Amino acid sequence: MLNSIKSFLDIPSPMSLPLLGHTYLFLPGGKYKSEKLTEAIKDISTKYGPIVRLKLGNTDIVVTTNADHTETLFRNEGIRPIRPPFPALYHYRKKTFNSVGVVPGNGEEWYRFRGGVNPLLKTSLINVYREQQEDVSRSFVNYLRNAVDDNYILYDTVEHLMNFAIEVTSLVCPGQRLRCISDEPAEQLKSASKDFMDGLYKTLIGPPIWKLFETDGYKQLKCSHQIIYRTIESYLKDFQKMYKTNPNFLKETNPFMYTLLSNKNLSQDDCNMLAIEVFLGGIDTTATTMAFTLHYLAQNESVQEKVRQNLSDDSYLKACIKETLRLRPTAGANSRFLPQDTVIGGYLIPKNTLVSAFSSITSHSEEYFKNADQYIPDRWLRNSNTAFHKFASLPFGYGPRMCPGKRLVENEMVILLREILKNFKLETDSAHIGMVYRMNRIAEKSINIKFLHTNH
Ligand code: HEM
């Protein structure tokens, strides 16, 4: 058995160049575009197989498009999974606040912060917000009636849904409903959240010269962080007072803020950082996922009608969201640094190597999903008789580092979807809309949808 294990250098790899490694493939004029990384990796894996070795910058990366390999990766990720860090964000926060939050950190530091957001995964906690979430969804439906043009078309649905996402997230964090669906303040927060993602992306993909001077990307990251910090900090101060004077009231009305502020392992600045992360975590991801769900339902009239017949059934609405996330996941890959030497796909991969499991490829592959290109929410229903690989579609990641907002955001999207389908029949002229990488993956062009009143 041991003899059959091949070495790291045996992993297939495209031709690499001295100094550049495989970076040349993604440079301007190169074969691939970094904003179309999923398509690039799919092409590479068609030529070299499901496991490939790449050198990008100074980093060796093992890329896999096989769900068994993904499973092996996660089964061996350890109790403090190590994800690629965000060095510029880490640097800025450490220097300015001496507190880094859960997203950019790793190891024990990450673990301490993670304790602050884990309560979001408790159903009993997030259910407290249900009525308010329903109210925000009704406001969004009312807003839609006026936002469509004379032909009932809403252009750039993602932009409008970002306002929804900010307002619905604000119920939980910072714990005060920010009336953003139709009000002006949303614009500043919305552009700050976009700038933040842009700045994060620019500082991540370029050479780390922000260490020497403040590059445009670094400035964008810093300024947008300042805007969001100011908003969050002022609300948190009020909650700090409430926590001291009337903790039971806070516990009942805003259990997330209560658990955050009562966490003895977190300082005031730690709470501010975590609140920023919870606030930012769901804005573009929720808006993109909702817009694609509406797009797919608009395209598939019979599926839309079936969903409308099952509006009281959360599991059917949830299946629609899962199917959208299978076809259009906002994360292209799930990545970890291996905590120990690990055999993946028959190759011995050394400790500390970065392994990226391209779930955006496995989730779209005929190998794992029959009629993989079609939007079939039924496949996710318990009684559907379609068993598939548990690691083939992982839009929220997996394990101790899985997205802490998963349950919350699923609830928010189910509630909004129900409200929209109760009121509108959806139509679209658009056929295929792909995705491009920014920080998260987003729609490559505007998603325009016709919202006709159901009694039309
Ligand atoms: C459709 C919506 C969303 C999608 C598709 C999504 C997806 C993801 C993914 C793939 C990860 C990485 C997981 C891993 O490495 O295993 C992640 C991490 C994270 N997400 Fe989400 N997310 C969404 C919404 C949210 C929301 C609403 C929040 C806030 C409540 C949030 C907060 C976070 C945080 C803080 C992390 C970092 C966790 C850590 O490093 O321990 N996300 N998300």
TrEMBL record:
Coiled-coil positions: none
Example GO molecular function: oxidoreductase activity, acting on paired donors, with incorporation or reduction of molecular oxygen
Signal peptide boundaries: none
Requisite cofactors: heme
Stored PROSITE patterns: CYTOCHROME_P450 (PS00086)
InterPro entries hit by this protein: CYP11_CYP27_families, Cyt_P450, Cyt_P450_CS, Cyt_P450_E_grp-I, Cyt_P450_sf
Domain of life, source organism: Eukaryota
Keyword NADP carried by entry: no
Classification via Pfam families: p450
Binding site for heme: 403
Sorted UniProt keywords: Heme, Iron, Metal-binding, Monooxygenase, Oxidoreductase
Gene3D superfamilies on file: Cytochrome P450
PANTHER family the UniProt entry points to: CYTOCHROME P450 (PTHR24279)
Family according to the record: Belongs to the cytochrome P450 family.
Record protein name field: Cytochrome P450
Organism of derivation: Psylliodes chrysocephalus
Upper taxonomic lineage: Eukaryota, Metazoa, Ecdysozoa, Arthropoda, Hexapoda
